[in-house]
Design brief:
13 helices, 244 residues, mainly alpha, 68% helix
Length: 244
């Protein structure tokens, strides 16, 4: 009889521990999230994504080929992404992939969206500025800075730099297109927005959009055309002569 009594006590203790684990939210071994970071790292490496800037610059450097790569690869890592997000929603790899998803939604999943149609118009001009844009990029790991004020300040500096360079050479339409893309990517990477982001700097001698549209619809903008555009007012006169 004492044997059965002891067994009942043991059984009671086992059940009690089980109930306490459930009540206190202690995860069961079978329910632990399996996070395969290696797949996330491999995905980011294949896209050469190291920072927020490297994400939105994909639209400038690889617009024609990037969407097909993203469509396939995002599906492959979907489970790993969701599992790792459950464990660490603010992790670096998770943050960068959120930025890639935002890029994909803005650029690749918008066939009938007016945004992508406008972006294709200004893209030849932006492509010629790709090396100029490198000076706009922030310091290494700026998005991992724990002080949100410093992060937002760097973010604003990057955004303004891209806006000014785009507006001067490629027009306001190009500057706005880049700004929208940058905002989508960066704010998804950071997981929050920053105040004052939509107050764009004043740009003197902004290139008129009609010249960019006309040139883009013809043969595309070449490096020599960009050199002419940078001349400013004289460039405008030359363009009027070349494209009456």
């Amino acid at each position: 009889m004492s044997y059965f009594k002891n067994m009942r006590e043991v059984t009671f203790l086992i059940c009690l521990v089980y109930l306490l684990e459930i009540g206190t939210g202690v995860p069961q071994e079978s329910c632990e999230v399996s996070c395969d970071e290696d797949k996330l790292i491999a995905f980011l490496a294949s896209m050469e994504v190291l920072s927020p800037e490297s994400i939105f610059n994909l639209a400038i450097n690889e617009l024609e080929s990037i969407c097909s790569q993203l469509t396939d690869n995002l599906k492959v890592i979907e489970k790993s992404f969701n599992d790792c997000k459950t464990k660490d929603a603010r992790g670096l790899y998770i943050s960068l992939i959120r930025g890639v998803q935002a890029f994909n939604n803005r650029i690749c999943c918008a066939d009938n969206n007016p945004y992508i149609k406008k972006f294709y118009v200004v893209h030849p001009c932006l492509f010629e500025l790709r090396q100029d844009f490198e000076s706009c990029n922030g310091p290494a790991d700026w998005n991992e800075e724990p002080d949100d004020r410093k992060v937002c300040k760097t973010y604003k500096t990057i955004l303004d730099c891209y806006y000014i360079k785009s507006a001067k050479v490629c027009g306001q339409q190009a500057a706005m297109a880049m700004s929208l893309l940058i905002e989508d990517v960066v704010e998804n990477v950071l997981g929050h927005s920053c105040k004052g982001i939509n107050s764009f700097p004043l740009v003197k001698d902004m290139m008129p959009d009609k010249y960019i549209e006309r040139t883009s619809s013809a043969k595309g903008i070449t490096s020599s055309t960009i050199l002419v555009l940078k001349i400013g007012l004289l460039g405008n006169i030359i363009m009027l002569i070349l494209f009456p």
